[in-house]
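Example record for the data management plan.
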Amino acid sequence: MNPLVQRVLSRSDVRAVARAATLIENRGPQATDLLRELFLHTGQARVIGITGPPGAGKSTLVSQLIGAFRALDKRVGVIAVDPSSPLTGGAILGDRVRMLEHHGDNSVFIRSLATRGALGGLASATLDLVLLLDAAGFDPILIETVGVGQDEVDVAHVAGTVVVVLVPNMGDDVQAIKAGILEIASVLVINKADLDGAGKLERELDAFSVPVCRTVATTGAGVAELVAALPAAPSRDTRAVWESRLRVMLRERLEALLPAAELSEAASSVARRQQDPYAILDNWMKHYFSRSVQR
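Corresponding structural encoding:
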């Protein structure tokens, strides 16, 4: 067995988990072999996605959830996904700053990821990091996405339970996102529930057959009730979750086979109407997919 795998499975070596996370995020050459060895030791953790519009207070709520789960003697893993700069590709990684109160607790592991252009509010390494933290004995694992809109529901591909965080006085925003993230919710949270309009928002959410909780994350009000509601909340079937995950993994593997320069050249060719996109896609499938299978 890989010595790093042994250290991760010891469930007491946080530095080993951090080293493995870096290999995975950077797509290092050892990452796939590492994950293959760890996979047989996964499947125990509850994976909870925390998503919602920007400004809903997700990071503050996640920090409160960490404290609530630690009070129950749980080892908590957190993957906080931050938006990348369109110019540098870097991320602000502000969530780690907001959660500093948990720094130094070896039963809490927080990793901030840059989206690096990934759509859907998640970084491409998110699923692999979930498996790492699962094998390392963290349960639950919380995934905080970047602020999302109607169609950015990729967190449902990774998490069995999805908490959608909203705030009062969103106006027409609730109507606008009903066909999107609200439909993937296991639990709906009205954060900043001390503001006027919380009752109106709760009535608007009655159409969804999932629990609705009120919280004030800045004070911790309602967080214990939210934690209590999670075990009974509807969650996706494990097979359905893995069907979604495998689709994402396949897409990423195929995209990784294609050189960036070739993608750019093809885009220019299509834009000039020198080639049609369907012929290009067919050629790519024949060339890259068949070559990958032969490996």
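Summary line stored alongside the record: The chain has two domains: 46-236, 242-294.
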